[in-house]
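Following up on my earlier thread - several people asked me to post the actual chain instead of describing it. Fair enough. Here it is, all 188 residues.
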Amino acid sequence: MASTSDIKNGLCLNYNNDVYKIVEFLHVKPGKGPAFVRTKLKSLTNGKVIDNTFPAGHKIDVVRVERRTYQFLYKEGQDFHFMNTETYEQVMIEGKMIDNGDLLKDGEMVDILFHSEKETPLTIDLPQYIVLAVTYTEPGVRGDTATNVTKPATVETGAQIKVPIFINEGDKIKIDSKTRSYMERVKE
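Reply from S.P.:
Thanks for posting it. Predicted structure:
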């Protein structure tokens, strides 16, 4: 058992008969009244995000997790297939457990969090930045140089990303996997 002083981003805990991951938290000590910890918890079984407030010193049931590196093999329907590159063990994970799974391309390395006692996959952490090639985008209009003008682009995995107007088909771009935002054009 841990207490609210052990709370940090990414910590997994048992709460209301479900496993939750702490997305963000804030320790609050008001001038009047007891201190508390305001948290945003994401369910690792159904993906719902809830807000919860724990009183200071409240005991929480921490779930022990192991982080293992796997390689993305392929997508079949809504299921994603991954392989451990050391043991060649394969695991299949439902698409609803993966945030921004449409950014994954074959061969991409990801971290999978496993429940230590049950050996079940809980969630997948994509690399922070993913480099993908643009397969389709409208050409930029000449003379349209207003700041922060974006257009939709389709990347090699089929995902839609907003990119600046100077990006053309065939360009490789770096994408932030958490926010799905364009970061920069990658030189080859």
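Residues 97 and 123 are 6 Å apart (CA to CA). That should answer part of your original question.
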